[in-house]
Design a protein that fits this description.
Blueprint (H helix, E strand, L loop, with lengths): L8 H9 L5 H19 L2 E4 L1 H16 L10 E5 L26 H8 L3 E6 L38 H8 L5 E6 L5 H7 L2 E4 L19 E6 L2 H11 L29 E5 L9 H16 L3 E5 L7 H16 L17 H12 L2 H14 L4 H24 L4 E5 L11 H5 L1 H5 L6 H6 L3 E8 L5 E8 L4 H15 L9
Parallel strand pairs: 2-3, 2-4, 7-8, 7-9
Antiparallel strand pairs: 1-3, 4-6, 5-6, 5-10, 9-11, 10-11
Helix pairs in contact: 2-3, 5-6, 7-16, 9-11, 9-12
Length: about 500
């Protein structure tokens, strides 16, 4: 039998339906991979092997009785930001030491109701703050890819680096992830995987540790576009516990794959041709344009004039919301507690010991921009810019544009401990230059592997769609996938 862990979700579903394999066999294959590779890759912070085998056994029993969910028997990895009942959930932070929630997030509840199997919790940047997965209390995740002729470890992107690395290295069939400014799409591009960031409100945020509540959105990282469509159909739902979730029908996203692109209009924003963009990224973008022309789509140059303000506005809005959201972690009710002379001293010592440097930096920035005298100058102004960014997209879509094509990242994956990135936080933040606009406007975005750079590392193209029209992204994403082919890391771990 071929390696079961190389099967996509769609392929595994077909073999399970045909009774060629069982969920227990599939789950055991993934657990074996995790045992062999996780010590090197550090993708999982907790492996729930007993729970996985129990869930797989129950799935096989349901299948035998004729009850088959949309993800029946499929083993998944779960980002450590999602609450899973009585399991590890620490947002990769020291401040949530030993926290095990007594409740289940809505997204994971939907997955288990559809028959999926939980393999464990995946590493990430602490509280989803980062673009490299180097900010985790559990240490950095290693990218399964390495540059040609080099043995240097590379970052898998962030904050969902554990999710992207696990999917790329066959340590799960698919993984949940979250995206606040590019944290699904950027790691997907760095690891040759597919990342879907749905429209804000399409998936419930209940039971997901908050970073920036008006920007955070759950999604997934997968092997291919079809798998992403299958997972989103199950993850998406309205939720009375999350008033920002939207009560709209969830389409059969998979049905959009393979539909003709003839007559569709693809927008190419001139503002995304940023100063200093590498020729490799330019050439990749042009390849994408040519693929759509060949598929019968019309290419239209568009303008999104406020794009240049998106990154600075994002790094005002997101830290401001983080400074409010993370105030709840104080050592009183759960997680780490460092005793002090009095309660205020205990707060200070707990937070100083519990939060990592990047989280502290963003909390301080957020507190500053919300403080008296700076609120109007920074926070209110950033929110006005956000409104203008949203209107730019609305104006473009009103002109008949169906989907927008851009690069996902300004480069391929960089080395863990890169000195330039470490010494200049702004250089690290620039990794999100093509992705933050999507979160600021609440739109859906999809990153699809589109080629390899001169070092043999994967690069992605990003598709941006109209609100709640994810099926158009899957339709368009499949065109890139078919033209570019699939990419798989050469095993070294």
């Amino acid at each position: 039998m071929t390696d079961l862990t190389k099967l996509t979700i769609a392929q595994a579903k077909a073999k399970l339906d045909a009774k060629e394999i069982t969920s227990v066999e599939l789950t055991d294959a993934y657990l074996s991979n995790i045992e062999a590779a996780n010590g090197e890759l550090n993708a999982y912070v907790s492996v729930t092997a007993d729970k996985a085998r129990s869930m797989a056994k129950a799935s096989d029993e349901r299948r035998a009785s004729g009850t088959i969910g949309d993800l029946e028997g499929i083993p998944l990895g779960i980002k450590d930001l999602f609450a899973t009942q009585d399991d590890h959930m620490q947002a990769a932070s020291h401040i949530l030491d030993d926290f095990k929630p007594r409740y289940e997030s809505t997204v994971t509840s939907n997955l288990w109701a559809a028959g999926a199997v939980q393999l464990g919790k995946l590493n990430m940047d602490e509280f989803a703050m980062g673009s490299s997965n180097e900010n985790s209390y559990y240490g950095p995740v290693k990218n399964p890819w390495k540059a040609q002729g080099s043995d240097k470890a590379l970052v898998p992107g962030g904050s969902s680096g554990g999710s992207s690395a696990a999917v790329a290295s066959m340590l799960c069939a698919g993984a949940t992830a979250t995206d606040t400014g590019g944290s699904i799409r950027q790691p997907a591009a760095f690891t040759g995987t597919v990342g879907i960031k749905p429209t804000y409100g399409r998936c419930s945020r209940w039971g997901v540790a908050a970073y920036a509540s008006s920007l955070d959105q759950a999604g997934s990282i997968n092997r291919d576009v079809r798998d992403a469509a299958i997972m989103l159909k199950t993850m998406a739902s309205v939720d009375l516990k999350d008033t920002t979730s939207v009560d709209l029908p969830v389409p059969n996203y998979e049905a959009a794959i393979g539909k003709s692109m003839k007559g569709m209009k693809i927008g190419i924003p001139k503002e995304y041709r940023v100063e200093g963009m590498s020729k490799e990224i330019e050439d990749l973008w042009q390849k994408g344009i040519d693929w759509y022309k060949a598929a019968g789509a019309e290419i239209v140059e568009i303008s999104l004039p406020h794009t240049k303000y998106a990154l600075p506005a994002y790094y005002i809005v997101a830290p401001a919301e983080a400074s409010s959201n993370l105030a709840r972690y104080d050592g009183v009710r759960y997680g780490l507690r460092v005793n002090g002379d009095n309660i205020e001293d205990m707060y200070k010592k707990t937070r100083a010991a519990g939060f990592g440097d990047e989280v502290k930096l963003r909390i301080m920035v957020g507190t500053y921009v919300l403080s008296a005298g700076y609120y109007d100058a920074y926070y209110i102004k950033a929110q006005k810019v956000r409104t203008l960014i949203k209107k730019d997209f609305e104006d473009v879509f009103a002109q008949g544009i169906d989907v927008i094509l851009t690069p996902t990242t300004p480069s391929s994956a960089f080395e863990i401990g890169d000195k330039e990135m470490a010494s200049d936080p702004v250089k690290m933040y620039l990794n999100d230059i093509f992705t933050v606009t999507v979160n600021m406007a609440g739109l859906p975005g999809l990153s699809v592997p589109a080629g390899l750079d001169s070092k043999g590392l994967p690069l992605g193209l990003q598709l941006i769609g109209k609100p709640f029209e994810e099926e158009t992204l899957f339709q368009a994403g499949h065109v890139i996938e078919e033209a570019a082919g699939r990419f798989e890391a050469k095993k070294w771990w």
